[in-house]
Amino acid sequence: MNTGLFEILADRSEAAEHQLPRTGISPDWEKKLSAHFIHSPGYGTRASTVITLNRRGRLDFRERSFDANGQLVEERRFVVEDFVIGVESSFDEEYPPPEIPRSQL
Question: pTM score, two decimals?
Answer without folding.
Answer: 0.70
